[in-house]
Batch of 3 targets.
Target 1
Amino acid sequence: MGIWLKNARAAARRAAENEQRRAEGLQVQSSAGELSNERREQLEDIAPAWCPAWPVEWQRCFHLVRLYLEAGRLLPAGPGEVMVQGEGLGRWVQSVRLGWDGLTVVQQWMCEHILGNPRPTTRSRSLGVRKPTSGR
């Protein structure tokens, strides 16, 4: 299944790149291997979070953090705190906080949904830490 998804993401990226080239009036060498719009919509109906433009590593860590939190565990605060299936979940959480402005709106919404409010404050942008909450 993982290989199939990897290939589907590559086909979707290829289709998006070719679409961009066409929009810019550039020649497309081949449309072979593109993911059709119909197939992409079907995949999005199955899993709205499926997005071939996002790095596979980002999606994998998001999923692992979500499962980790759903199991009742606390959110790791920084690198080296929690490893799951070879992935540093604390490192990923910190990368989300520090790279917040580089995430898409959908990625930000997904992270807010599972992490609470991971947006860095001005001070935490430089420190990579989460602003303490009031304990509500």
Target 2
Amino acid sequence: MKRSVAWRLPGAVAALAVVAATGVALSLPETASAAGSATGFAAENGGTTGGAGGETVRATTGTEIHQALCSRESTDTPLIIEVEGTINHGNTSDVDGDSCDTDDDRIELKGISNVSIIGVGSGATFDQIGIHIRDSSNIIIQNVTIQNVKKSGSPTSNGGDAIGMESDVRNVWVDHTTLIASGGEDEGYDGLFDLKNNTQYVTLSYSVLRDSGRGGLIGSSESDRSNGYVTFHHNLYQNIDSRTPLLRGGVAHMYNNYYADVHESGINSRAGGQAKVENNYFQDSRNVLGTFYTDEPGYWEVSGNIFDNVTWSEPGDETSPAGPDPESTTSVSIPYSYELDDAECVPAIVARTAGAGTGLAESDGSC
């Protein structure tokens, strides 16, 4: 069941698929603009609407995505790009134009605003090629899979990040995505979801992050504390070594996420970071919350979480786990409305709603 914290829910969408008895959701129709409304911190600071109200363009290659960006009247002309098929290095090239600044080894959203990238059908796949957001605002990414983006080896893209944001980024909503690697740094991969250098008002919702050494970070160093106001809800973190996420400075809100098989450390709040951690389910994992690998502490407020077969390290000079009996070390104020699912229902809810190709299904609060 849901526990009401406030009244606002994401907008209902007629195009949502009905989840079958097997738990597998049907796909979106072959034409689909962004469904629902931005939640969490992405709904603050004026909100995140992406390309709503703008032209809708279909793209089947990375070059066509760049062409759509470069064909706009200006860098802030609203645009919805519906993507289908597989985007890779072989079909992605740099395109010139006054309303874009693209590159040929990544999907580049640089110096722009008011854009939605939406996978249609069962969702598009970005294979070994990442999405880079820089000096941009009001961006939506929805119903896509991004996999095996490398920073070393061949081919490389986006510094090894599936989705990376940096340099004065504002208001980004990433929803119903699947972000996957095939190993850690030794295998050439970096983070799945990285925010740095003054990136704020971001929400990651109903997404799957798995099979990676690093889930993601907020802040690239102990001195990079200008990031924050990030919400994570109804996501699955599975088979991750660490960083679910790493939070340096700033505020982050994690609720109704399912963390399974986190090997080394999970939510790593450090360098003054403040994490509000509510009604999550942590299972078969280690050090899922605390300050790790630094002597500069972070803080957390905890309530309603379930810790199922979670182990904890002993405290040390650079290790300050929140457990084995996590208690709040700060109080974090959240300005937006939201509802909480019971933590015991989170694994079942996330299993049927998170990731690309789930018909943009959302929680109805039931197990």
Target 3
Amino acid sequence: MQDTSAFAADDALVVAGRRYRSRLLTGTGKFKDFDETRRATDAAGAQIVTVAIRRMNLGQDPNAPNLLDALPPEQFTLLPNTAGCYTADDAIRTCRLARELLDGHKLVKLEVLGDARTLYPDVVQTLAAAERLVADGFDVMVYTSDDPILAKRLEDIGCVAVMPLAAPIGSGLGVQNKYNLLEIVENAKVPIIVDAGVGTASDAAIAMELGCDGVLMNTAIAGAKDPILMAHAMKLAVEAGRAAFRAGRIPRKRYASASSPVDGLIG
């Protein structure tokens, strides 16, 4: 019998040349306090945590609680994001601020929103910002729509990971277009990480079963009745979905197929 613990050991997520055992990335907003943020992060087993630079204190205010005390950079890979930005210029300024606050940190999550109601990405501004940030030496993980052509364009620009939405941010609707995600995954040479729209553990498992390299979530955990328990559930779902993808599911059929052979039955 195979040792299943070996599967995880040889199946690292690689982002910008760095290896991670966890394929679940988590956010740091919407929790009641930094203690809950830390406990949920631990329960999720997350190693990459995303931080909204324009909303979170990373030392800008010495009189306020500092997220870095709860999630020290020595223990977690911080992923500064440009949440709340609606233009390429604003997103670029935010990334440069993050680099300054975090002592030259290069890994960022780019998101440029199109409007405040849907929080859909503005793909024109996203492309413009991605080109400039890559040219400026940033390692860009980019939030985008589930358009396969756009995803490939962002990869070609030099983004280190492409992060298509499963559904609108915070909606909890789950994966709405499996076929677009499949097309993105099958044509990608960089990690594809579902970002936005996950509501519960089965949604995360579906994304991973489709072949996505990881899932990023915040609201699904922070907004749950028990965020710590939900974080644990999401950890298991991502691991199960990844294992199922690697194992290879059986083909779907419209008719029954006996589990045991019918040849050689007694009588």
